[in-house]
Amino acid sequence: MAVYTHVSAEEMGALLARFDVGTLLSAKGIAEGVENSNYLVEATGGRFILTLYEKRVDEADLPFFLALLDHLAEAGLPVPRALPARDGTQVQRVAGRPACLIEFLSGVSVSHPTPAQAHAAGAALGAMHTALRHFQLERPNALGPVDWRALAARCGADLDIIQPGLAARVAAELDWLAVHWPVGLPRAVIHADLFPDNVLMLDDRVTGVIDFYFACTEVRAWDLAVTHSAWAFSADGADYDPAIGEALVAGYESRFPLSAAEKAAFPALCRGAALRFLLTRAWDWLNTPADALVTRKDPLAFLRRLEFYAR
Ligand SMILES: Nc1ncnc2c1ncn2[C@@H]1O[C@H](COP(=O)(O)OP(=O)(O)O)[C@@H](O)[C@H]1O
Ligand SMILES: N[C@@H](CCOP(=O)(O)O)C(=O)O
């Protein structure tokens, strides 16, 4: 459960008093998510999400994320905007952390997507890339290819605690990617974390795309590779489902065709995607505080995806 920072009823009430949303009815910590603290807040004026930004979100990046959400919402995409308080500010301070009160979107995230749902998710990603072609702001990717070696070094030999031989496997993959990572592909602002838990759906329809806190300027097709690695496998990474993978890419291409160069680079981009999530999960596996109300995610589920792409 991702609640790192406890917000008291008094603090919650004081926060809502800064907005035109009525008074507090209830607030509950949300079980899903691993990065930030999220509460589902019921007020007399509606239902909202309160997000307190934690470890990996730099407060200085919040204006970028909020502008991105406003841009996508204006383009008609189902993304949640941060509400402005009565004084016009979107970012508040709650329990010592930067925080936003965010529009609640309906829908559920699917655990076992059907091809139709994967097609819809791919199409939503393609529509997002279309809407972002003219988005002017930039944000470097703090978890991009140049950072993977440093992250692996920080995990160090402890990778072998997760699985014997993992440190050597990661080192070999870093060397492979150093040679094969594509150059010259188009770059743009991307979501960079479009896992099924970040897509809200009703039946086969995408009703919400959430969690933009890894959004950054990066190789655009890498976003599709990340999404492919997240959607097209069983949760443990052991089984690839080609129908899901193909539907996802077809949905994407229905809104944003890939170039020949992007298609040729796709296997390497997928290997990079698998390594990126293997490494962040490994770091979290080794470093999550014992008292945090969070379920760690299995790094080996992305080692298995990596081995699939490598084959
Ligand atoms: N705008 C929203 N509308 C509805 N539910 C949301 C919204 N934002 C977050 N949630 C819920 O909170 C959960 C965690 O949010 P998420 O942004 O993924 O957290 P984290 O950044 O910690 O990974 C989501 O899985 C979803 O259930
Ligand atoms: N999607 C990443 C971790 C980030 O978690 P999220 O809940 O913010 O999507 C992973 O699965 O490793």
Automatic annotation (TrEMBL):
Single GO MF descriptor: homoserine kinase activity
Membrane spanning stretches: none
Entry superkingdom: Bacteria
Reaction catalyzed: L-homoserine + ATP = O-phospho-L-homoserine + ADP + H(+)
Pathway the protein acts in: Amino-acid biosynthesis; L-threonine biosynthesis; L-threonine from L-aspartate: step 4/5
EC number: 2.7.1.39
Stretches assigned to the Aminoglycoside phosphotransferase domain: 27-254
Assigned keywords, A-Z: Amino-acid biosynthesis, ATP-binding, Kinase, Nucleotide-binding, Threonine biosynthesis, Transferase
Keyword Amino-acid biosynthesis: yes
Family in the record: Belongs to the pseudomonas-type ThrB family.
PANTHER family: AMINOGLYCOSIDE PHOSPHOTRANSFERASE DOMAIN-CONTAINING PROTEIN, AMINOGLYCOSIDE PHOSPHOTRANSFERASE DOMAIN-CONTAINING PROTEIN-RELATED
Matches recorded under NCBIfam families: PRK05231.1, thrB_alt
The protein's name in its UniProt record: Homoserine kinase
Organism annotation: Sphingomonas quercus
Taxonomy of the source species: Bacteria, Pseudomonadati, Pseudomonadota, Alphaproteobacteria, Sphingomonadales
